Amino acid sequence: MLDRKTNRKNKTTKSSRSYDPEEYQLNHLRPMHTFSIVARDKKTGEMGVAVQSHWFSVGADVPWAEAGIGVVATQSFVDPSYGPKGLELMRLGKSASETLKQLIAADSGEAVRQVAMVDSKGEAAVHTGKRCVDYAGHRTGDGYSVQANLMLNDKVPTAMANAFETAPGDLAERMMMALEAAQKVGGDIRGKQSAAMIMVKAQSSGKSWVNRTVDLRVEDHPEPLKELRRLISVARAYGHMNAGDAAMEKNDVETALKEYGEAMKLAGDNVEIAFWSALTLALKGKVDQALPIFKKVFLEDRNWVEVLKRLPKAGIIPDDDTGRALMQRILNEARDQ
Description:
- This protein has helices at residues 4-9, 11-16, 21-28, 82-91, 96-105, 156-166, 171-184, 208-211, 224-249, 253-267, 271-283, 287-300, 303-314, 321-334, and strands at residues 31-32, 34-40, 47-53, 63-66, 70-77, 113-119, 124-128, 137-141, 144-148, 194-200, 212-218.
- By secondary structure, it is an alpha+beta fold.
- It starts with a helix and ends with a helix.
């Protein structure tokens, strides 16, 4: 490392000293020591990346994803450019292994990097530099890679791989199980602080805001994985609500009620999901099914009565005799007088 005492005494030493890129990276880049997983679901083609670290806002630098292209995790003494550069090369047709090989070859600080990628065909590639802080290691399998550095022990990669390979459920659940397995066997030697998960569709729709099916970050929390799991449950709830709305557009009330029910079950005390679900039913003429839901919402929080009254002005409820009659019926029969 740089001898600062010598530099203070001898200015010529500093000016003549050769540049050490690895030392520069160690002194200037964020030490994003962590454990992560990049993976592709063989059934759906969805791809995802999930991570936990004892560092604030790990989701800002480590996980990268693009629908129809691939996913990247860049960590250790992190160089965030591996994310966009990796996705760009895979977008140009290079495989994950070709992409990673090219980027590593061009990086003078590769010894302190830990980077993993999975492309849209499910090929996984990973690099753990020789100067990553112990314990550092990785495991790859069919369509996935798990990697970790600065861990309490050497059990983390194997625990993550085993959990991912054997866990039931969709890709989000399997990645969560991998992260939780890492924490269970020791995890980051420093503890835990933040977590993140991104999932993208198998094919791009051309709309980035549609392509991401999961985009969650826990910036600073004493139990980041527990909080991430809670957020995934909330995200699923909103997914069911959207599916219910889609069913109502097709006048499939039975499916809509089922989806709204699942949404409310997952959302717990989130009365907003219940309110908008009930409103959609009411606007589609299913007032009898909507009234019990409205009643529960209004009992929980009377502010939603006021929200309802403001909707005609916004055009959400028709601002005419029919709309006013609907709103009055809801208020008369669902509001606690």
